[in-house]
Amino acid sequence: MQETALRLRVGHLLPYSMSDSNTTNFTNPSTFILLGIPGLEADHIWISIPFCTMYTIAVLGNFTILFIIKMEQSLHGPMYYFLCMLAITDLVMSTSTLPKMLSIFWFNSREINFSACLTQMYVLLCFSAMESGILVAMAFDRYVAICHPLRHSTILTNSVVAKIGLAVLLRSGIFALPYPFLAMRWPYCRTNVIPHTYCEHIAVVNLACADIRISSYYGLFDLFSEIGMDVFFITVSYTQILQAIFHLPTKDARLKTFGTCISHLCAILAFYTPDFFSSLTHRFGHNVPLHFLVLIANMYLLVPPLLHPIIYGVRTKQIRGRLLRLFTPKGT
């Protein structure tokens, strides 16, 4: 099984000479079988404990962020609207994978419908790109707030924020569409066992007994054109922000202003680092152990949703204050 999984990871098909007991003849399978974490099947129960804990904290944290921003009138502004979008995106990304993943770990429920698998693939790719776009919008918000503070309220009106959110949604939805459509047209005539915990794009299309270079090339094109451009715009924004900070008259003012950007920079690193690492090693890291690749892909779905509420809850004074009032008994 490990040898088979390793062959599938790098996109090689099992040879035709293998016995019929190891092959299955079908063009489009009715179901896929999610293997979990290849090589660590005996440890699934133990692995599920931190995964479940992280998911629970992420769900509670993001719902808390949404609740506080909704209840606190003073937080109804561009930065917090973008933070709400980020929280919703995190909830969708983690919830689209973790419940099924835990059912594999706990109940050995490995089957997933072919259509459900492609839907999960689309949702993950779409909302991953949405999260990237929201981080760009938040960087733009910080740029306007620091470099053009007197024009912030006139530049980032509620109407502009809504248009940015709609643009991010449309861009992500359109760019993610080719993935499931391409995956749907490939013939899957060897095996329907996916060596992964969820329907990750490369893990699925590597099962096809066809030339999947179009899917692979489109994935790289999307990675560098969409995510790469987002990273470029974030870098430009923060270059301008740092220049503005260094020109502030006092050290205290520089530290205070830079402190407002720390949380966003941490969120950026938490999202993009595992994203690029996972995407590139799945394509080029042929010597990287398969279980390590799967664990990194899972961390990409768990760590940002877990860290965002902590980062913004701790670093944002208004949210921290409202949270303390929420859990502090009146009269104390």
- Bulk shape: globular
Helix content: over 70%
Could you give the order of strands across the largest sheet?
2-1-3
Structural class: mainly alpha
| Helix-strand sequence | HEHHHEHHHHEHHHHH
Distance between the termini: 61 Å
Work out the helix count: 13
Radius of gyration: 22 Å
**Unreliable residue stretches:** 1-25
The chain-level mean pLDDT equals 83
Tally of DSSP β-strands: 3
Largest sheet: 3 strands, mixed
* Percent range for β-strand residues: under 5%
Describe the structure.
The relative contact order is 0.15. This protein has helices at residues 2-9, 44-71, 78-95, 98-107, 114-147, 152-155, 158-176, 178-185, 201-205, 213-246, 251-284, 290-315, 317-327, and strands at 31-34, 111-113, 193-194. Mean pLDDT is 83; it is low at 1-25. With 332 residues, the chain is mainly alpha-helical. The termini are far apart.
Task: Provide the fold topology.
Blueprint: H1 2-9, E1 31-34, H2 44-71, H3 78-95, H4 98-107, E2 111-113, H5 114-147, H6 152-155, H7 158-176, H8 178-185, E3 193-194, H9 201-205, H10 213-246, H11 251-284, H12 290-315, H13 317-327
Parallel strand pairs: 1-3
Antiparallel strand pairs: 1-2
